[in-house]
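Re-running Alkaline shock response membrane anchor protein AmaP to confirm reproducibility after the cluster update. Everything else is unchanged from the original entry.
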Amino acid sequence: MRAYMGNRIGLGIVGLVMAAAGVGVLAARADHLGARIIDLSFFVNNAWARPPAAATAILIALIVTRWLAVALGWGRCGSRSGSGTAMLGVALKGIEGIGRIQVRLVRDKRMRVLVSLLPRADLHEVIGRLEGEVIPRVRGAVDREDIPTLVRLHVRRR
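Result of re-run:
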């Protein structure tokens, strides 16, 4: 399953639960117009319960905010380099099992190369080519011959 599918499924489940809860609250409210929906007397009578409840609410808000930032792609450093990705594809041509490739330039200070491999890929051949000729060619394609480069190899399970 792809990561974006997990995000969509998670959003769908959370949305359905929240919609069902809202419909339930509205139905309960329609039957008893004068009654309170939520009884907060526990927090009124027990002062010790307020700080843990507030801390829990803040923790949930932080977790949701972080998840949203990751899902939207904020925090990704750099910009994609089309010419670098094209050169990487040409340089790795002929190797079986290359899944996805990507080249990013991070503030003109460094370059990130991502190579995603299928399980049938020959890892030794990919590493040998990357160490030999590929990275200098990609650096030349992005016009930065001496930029530090981080190469990430990801081998998929399926």
